[in-house]
Amino acid sequence: MSLVNIYGEFSCAKFLCPAYKYCMCGIVGYSGSQNAKAIVMDGLRTLEYRGYDSAGVALGGDRLKVFKTAGRVNALDAMLPAGGACHTAIGHTRWATHGKPNAVNAHPHLSYDKKIAVVHNGVLENCAELKSELAGKGISCVSETDSELLAHLLALEGGDMLEAVRRVGGKAKGSATFLAIREGDPAVYVFRKGASMLVAKGEYGSFAASDGLALARYVGTATVLQDDEYARITHDVCAIFKDGARIFKSSTPLRVSPPKECACHMRAEIDEIPAALERTYLKVSEALDDELADRVRRAKRVMLAGCGTAFHACRYGKLLLEQMAGICAEAVAASEADEGAPVDGDTLALFVTQSGETADTLLAMKRCAEGGAYTVAVTNVESSGAALAADKTLFLDAGAEVAVAATKSYCCQLLAVNMLARRVAGDILREEELKKLTNGAKECIARCELFEKRMLTDKLFLVGRGQDLVTAKEGALKLKEITYRQAEAYAAGELKHGPIALIDSESTVIALATREDCLPRMRATVSELRSRGAYVVGLSGAGDLGADKTVFLPSLEDVTLRPILCVLPLQELALCSSLCLGLDPDKPRNLAKSVTVI
Ligand code: AGP
């Protein structure tokens, strides 16, 4: 089935940033008086979290020089010649969608006459058509990628390069955001369709990149291109065009700080959780108003949707809306959202997404908006597609998160939905309560007591009830993502209906309990597991579980906030396990930070 057929065209005018298609790459370009190679390599390092199968750069000048390799940006760095001053360059870091992640398929791609180099973010839906058009002219591709076609098409157009960019961009169907350079030309040419692209003019030249993080070191503001806009950027100008005419657009502040160089981003991001929670508290307090609380109360249907970790935050939010505010809510995986009943104008749909770029989430959001629902985005990226498309945004301000495994953003998502549920219930989270939470988080992070070598196993289980089941699921996801070991989470009461058959003396079970009222039933579960030979470790914020060993969470009066503490030892466990196995927790295999494919 064609992806085009599934998704058709967006009709909702609010979806101006449809990065919902299938592009999972980072691209960056520079033209100016500084060392273009160094600036583009720096950008690629920052954008590597968007894809790390292969990487490449093209350096401008009288003759183009292209360097590319399978693997990481460091491998690319190692193959670049020292020196080689040039003032124009483009680069790409890739998560393969078409063709294997090898050097041939890596970007940049050169045109048949070797005079034009292109980096592309997206997938050309009319790839076959364009390929046969080129074949008819005797031009064949050397790579398995669709992106190479763009370079040949630009060369075929000839003449004015800006006009060639407009024509080729217009001809490309699907998502075709690309940068191009031409030999003997100081400019970088930019075209945006489907995948995000920002351009900016700085003191020493102009920049283009797929996200603001790559620009933030050099400029304070940037212009977000919309579909079918294109640009010519040089040392002196950053000129934007649409339909053959120059347009003037305002630029927006880049409120992001590029993450500092560090050996392990996941480590740094966990350590930052207490500070991130404080920022989220401030931002969400500002944005939460009576109007939103009323809308939630009045809605006939309240839906929370997200993917992966964000979906777990939705499940927690659903429980709190029901328990605190008596509002019936449903939590759905955004990728499954269209399996339920269609939404209408009486629906309030809340979308949780760290990146604001997740294709499944944006698509679910689009469908809800088209059905007339009021949409709310809970996101960590202010200029993201989700934030731009939603009727209302709760911005997390957790700070840039680049490790693939979400940690600080999850804790901030939990805090944001907790604050929302309270507001709907006519209550607020007081600063003293936040302080206790952040102190507890600091203590948890400093302790790191859960990890044991026997947890490096494929027979690891996590069990809990209610809000603890949500945490168990998040812990299991974290372990799978960065250790590649099987870790499964089950509702404690469901074990005896089947999964307990998996338990034997090789099994390790982490039993979670953050609510006193769950203790008797959790103790019974622990006893059942131990009598079948499992080694059971309790993770408790409520009391003793009768386990082989129990790790106690710092005491926190507010039961509903305890999941924010309870997830921390599980994040630490996943991180320690990954490091112990000699893996790279920041860039686990087969994954990328923003899943912009459907
Ligand atoms: C989390 O550790 C994962 N990397 C993944 O499940 C992620 O939460 C999911 O892809 C959703 O991303 P988003 O929050 O950016 O929408």
Tell me briefly what this model is.
The chain is α/β, with parallel strands linked by helices and 598 residues long. 34% of the residues lie in helices and 21% in strands.
Give the structural class.
Answer: alpha/beta
**Domain count:** 3
Q: Trace the largest sheet across and list its strands.
A: 3-2-4-1-10-9-11-15
CATH class of the largest domain: Alpha Beta
Which range does the strand content fall in?
15-25%
- Report the count of strand segments: 25
Description:
- By secondary structure, the chain is of the alpha/beta class.
- The chain has 3 domains: 18-253, Glutamine Phosphoribosylpyrophosphate, subunit 1, domain 1 (4-Layer Sandwich), CATH 3.60.20; 262-429, 3-Layer(aba) Sandwich (Rossmann fold), CATH 3.40.50.10490; 448-585, Rossmann fold.
- 34% of the residues lie in helices and 21% in strands.
- The protein contains 17 helices and 25 strands.
- The strands form 4 sheets. It has an 8-stranded antiparallel beta sheet with strand order 3-2-4-1-10-9-11-15, covered by helices on one side. The chain has a 7-stranded antiparallel beta sheet with strand order 5-6-7-8-12-13-14, covered by helices on one side.
- Helix 8 (273-287) runs parallel beside helix 13 (408-424).
- The longest helix has 19 residues, at 562-580.
- Mean pLDDT is 92; it is low at 1-23.
- The structure holds 2-deoxy-2-amino glucitol-6-phosphate.
- 2-deoxy-2-amino glucitol-6-phosphate (AGP) binds at residues 307-310, 353-355, 358, 361, 404-406, 481, 594-595.
- 2-deoxy-2-amino glucitol-6-phosphate is lined by residues 307-310, 353-355, 358, 361, 404-406, 481, 594-595.
